[in-house]
């Protein structure tokens, strides 16, 4: 079951992905994130994925496209908290999410976003 | 004895990866290998749903002389098949919905990876990961 959440903290949107996310849910979450950027007028989005135990090619594509869409809208995205083994499989598979900024954890991402203004 | 997982809709892909992680963990695979196996199963189960609409997965523990114990998953469907297997394994090749890394990436995560397919007759993909390297 998908247990993800989207909350606004200061000037950023914090999206926590967790639970079992199927492909359709991933697309729905993408739409929800984009709508929330406008609704809350945030300048940054942190997608926190420390609870995800796998990122396959589909999820990698959704994450990377979401970051590009948010950039087009005028906000900045950080992917935070990748698990070591998730990072290993992404690299081994040759998945490309180079365009997405990453942070060690949510706290670091929020600090960088705050410092950027 | 092999076990079977039917793939008929998107939520079955999630079920398949849950079972894969559970089986890999019970067999004593490292966290890294559990993640590789689960990711590979996620990719190939999704392919069944995307390209053939339905199919099934058979999995079992295998033992082979010097290689010792391993886990084998066989993905079968009766969909349109893969017209050009070599092309499908090319990095960056996509027939639409993915990143173009699904098959080639999955192959890199596994110790063994074989595809049998002919147009109109579906596809059979077999993957193996050995417990001890």
From TrEMBL, chain A:
Family annotation (InterPro entries): Bact_StressResp_Reg (IPR051932), STAS_dom (IPR002645), STAS_dom_sf (IPR036513)
Signal peptide: none
Species, as recorded: Heliobacterium mobile (Heliobacillus mobilis)
Domain STAS: 2-113
PROSITE patterns, A to Z: STAS (PS50801)
The protein's name: STAS domain-containing protein
Tree of life domain: Bacteria
TrEMBL record, chain B:
A Pfam family matched in the record: HATPase_c
Record-annotated Histidine kinase/HSP90-like ATPase domain positions: 32-133
InterPro entries assigned: HATPase_C_sf (IPR036890), HATPase_dom (IPR003594)
SUPFAM superfamilies: ATPase domain of HSP90 chaperone/DNA topoisomerase II/histidine kinase (SSF55874)
Protein name: Histidine kinase/HSP90-like ATPase domain-containing protein
Organism: Heliobacterium mobile (Heliobacillus mobilis)
């Amino acid at each position: 079951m998908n247990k993800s959440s989207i909350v606004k903290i200061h000037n950023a949107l914090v999206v926590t992905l967790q639970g079992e996310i199927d492909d359709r849910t991933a697309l729905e979450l993408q739409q929800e994130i984009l709508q929330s950027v406008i609704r809350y007028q945030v300048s940054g989005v942190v997608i926190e994925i420390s609870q995800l135990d796998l990122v396959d090619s589909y999820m990698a594509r959704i994450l990377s496209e979401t970051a590009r869409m948010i950039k087009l809208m005028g906000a900045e995205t950080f992917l935070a908290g990748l698990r070591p083994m998730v990072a290993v499989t992404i690299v081994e598979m040759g998945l490309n999410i180079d365009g997405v900024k990453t942070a060690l954890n949510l706290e670091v991402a929020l600090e960088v976003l705050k410092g950027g203004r | 004895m092999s076990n079977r997982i039917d793939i008929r809709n998107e939520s079955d892909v999630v079920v398949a990866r849950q079972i894969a992680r559970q089986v890999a963990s019970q067999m004593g695979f490292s966290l890294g290998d559990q993640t590789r196996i689960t990711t590979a199963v996620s990719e190939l189960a999704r392919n069944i749903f995307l390209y053939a609409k339905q199919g099934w997965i058979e999995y079992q523990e295998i033992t082979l002389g010097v290689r010792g114990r391993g886990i084998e998953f066989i993905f079968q469907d009766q969909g349109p098949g893969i017209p050009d297997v070599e092309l499908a394994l090319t990095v960056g090749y996509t027939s639409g919905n993915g990143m173009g890394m699904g098959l080639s990436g999955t192959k890199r995560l596994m110790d063994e990876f074989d595809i049998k397919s002919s147009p109109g007759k579906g596809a059979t993909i077999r993957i193996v990961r050995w417990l001890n390297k």
